[in-house]
Amino acid sequence: MNIVVCVKYVPDAQSDRSFRDSDRTVDRDGVDGLLSELDEYAVEEALKIVEAAGEGEVTVLTVGPEAAANAIKKALQMGADRGVHVEDEAIHGSDAAATSLVLAEAVRKATGGTPELVMTGMSSTDGVMGVVPAMLAERLGLPQVTYASELTVGEGTVTIRRDGDTASETIEASLPALVSVTDQINEPRYPSFKGIMAAKKKPVEQWGLADLGIDTSQVGLDAAWTSVVSVTKRPPRAQGQIVADEGDGGSRLAEFLAGQKFI
Amino acid sequence: MFELSQDHEDFREVVRDFATQAVEPHVAKWDRAHHFPTELVPQMGGLGLFGLVVPEAYGGSLEDADGGAFTSLCIAIEELGRVDQSIGITLSAGVGLGINPILTYGTDAQKERFLPDLVAGRALAGFGLTEPDAGSDAGATRTKAVLEDGQWVVDGAKAFITNSGTEITSVVTVTARTGTDPEGRAEISAIMIPSGTAGFTVEAPYDKLGWNISDTHGLSFSGCRVPEDHLLGARGHGFRQFLKTLDDGRIAISALALGLITRMREEATAYATSRTAFGRPIGANQGVAFPIADLAVMEENARLVTYRAAWLKDEQEAGRRSVAEVKQAAAVAKLYTSEAAVAATRIATQVFGGNGFMEEYPVARFYRDAKILEIGEGTSEVQRMVIAKGLGLPTA
Questions:
Q1: Contact A193/B49, CB-based, under 8 Å?
Q2: B-chain residue closest to A200, CA distance
Q3: Rounded CA separation A137/A146 (Å)
Q4: In chain B, where does the domain assigned CATH 1.20.140.10 lie?
């Protein structure tokens, strides 16, 4: 089975993140980035499926600026077979709808129009909207099977377990399909030394919007259905309140908690 | 000229991620419990760490390394050592003392039997040279092995043997007297003793100052019998074979020390920036800032001597440098970095003040772990002996 995994290059959550003053988009230049941790689960699951089947290829697809090549590189080091990097200045500032359009055309092109299984993480770790998998499935006309905590590929079908607050559902869909996976599905591997060296020889295709037949007016900030009007940095956390116990510590603690509506 | 290749840096990033995510969160707990995390070994094997210098035929990646295999190993040891010294030495000893002698001197059958599991991290191996009464004076070895009915009968004791008593230790290679050479000197040979062999006892773990996560035991042998084909390398070559592995081991210890110094510089800088006294960060005082500047100087120097020695080793493997050059560079690197490491932990704990004395902060663990760097794989005094000899100075 051939699998396309869509991944995102995101700012490292551990470093200081900021927004550009000019257009209020996430500043991706000034910070270290990495393959979104939530997408690593999708890469790992795809590798496991192909390894278990003993045949097939994992293609890892990303849409993003030049540095996003690092997300592909990491996935290739983990074991994916080839990469597709869609990069075009016009894409900057695209909303989820436009992103899903670019991804959909890229998936079509990468699979000759007939994807077998498309996989994604459950959301990005920077935007955290979680809507791209559903939009992508819709654009590709595929069953959308989201939030898989367990995945089994059968004869022409895919079965997942989706864990909710009150119940776990088992959902089956016909293939081809799009599946998004949660961080409960597996434990992503670290690349091995062999994997790092092998990744250098794996093919990565570079496509622009023109290669995908997408007009620049369909993407980017101007095409976005929503816009970020203002950005305010979260104020630093205020100092905690220290109560000296003068025999009435218990009741003062209760007062504090009641005042904050905790009790 | 003064930077590692992109491949090496990519590899460093992966090992750092692993060390930060899979090791760091647990080390304080493991250190307190003196717990050896067996489950970590196959994970390290999965990253290919034990196979960096091993050919593909035994599960390694030597052929992929573009001639920089030993440098890759040093990077892995440095990055693990930056998070925890015990985990770093587990890798260093696992490869240098466990795998290397078998790889270098073993027969095809011995290699096929032991190496695949060792490379995958399913097993660990140890090397027993040191004895209660014989350290750097390895000629004083008392453990003996007598060939009897096609079997080596081993009697004696070994001390301070790393990775010798873990749940997955598969074999320990020991040096033993197997006779006397024509000049009347002890004939020393190396013999492989699989774990569980009758007459082979792994003593209780040592109570150490540091390296609490690392597995270290004394070993004793009493009428311990192994088949004749468990001889490793040529009979009578045991000591010579071991001396060759020492040079590599010294560079590996330098990498371990470098990881420690780097961490001390990072910890001290962060603490001196965030901790305030008298209304300003303590790092604003020269009395605190200057020793931290010294840490950066130590780190830089340690990095240069370590990776130059590692590069020389890789070049020597390719036949472009001499063994003598590597030996000298290894002793220089080991001496400098281990002494700097001890000094670095002293500086870092001082910057931390009272907190530096508390196990709550990692600098205390590194302070305890540093001292052994000046002792293991040849003490600082032995390094000076080697260096002086390399300069052609008269010997005693």
A1: yes
A2: B7
A3: 10
A4: 239-390
Report the candidate in A67, A73, A83, A121 with the shortest Cα–Cα distance to residue A205.
Answer: A83
Every domain range in chain B assigned CATH 1.10.540.10: 6-123
Q: Name the residue among B7, B22, B47 with its Cβ closest to that of A192.
A: B47
Q: What's the CATH class of domain A2-223?
A: alpha beta
Q: What is the ipTM of this complex?
A: 0.86
Cβ–Cβ < 8 Å for B85, B27:
no
Is B10–A193 a contact, with Cβ atoms under 8 angstroms apart?
no
Pinpoint the residues of chain B covered by CATH 2.40.110.10: 126-236
Positions of B marked active-site: 377
What is the C-alpha end-to-end distance of chain B, expressed in Å?
39
Question: Cβ separation of A193 and B46 shorter than 8 Å?
Answer: no
Q: Which residue of B has its CA nearest to A73?
A: B10
Tens digit of each residue's pLDDT (9 = 90 or more) over B265-309: 999 999 999 999 999 999 999 999 999 999 999 999 999 999 999
**Cα separation of B289 and A188, whole Å?**
41
Residue type, A79: G
Residue of A nearest to B50 (CA): A193
Query: Is A190 in contact with B61 (Cβ distance < 8 A)?
Result: no
* Helix residue spans in A54-163 (DSSP H): 69-78, 96-110, 132-140
Gyration radius from chain B CA atoms:
21
pLDDT tens for residues A153-204?
999 999 999 999 999 999 999 999 999 999 999 999 999 999 999 999 999 9
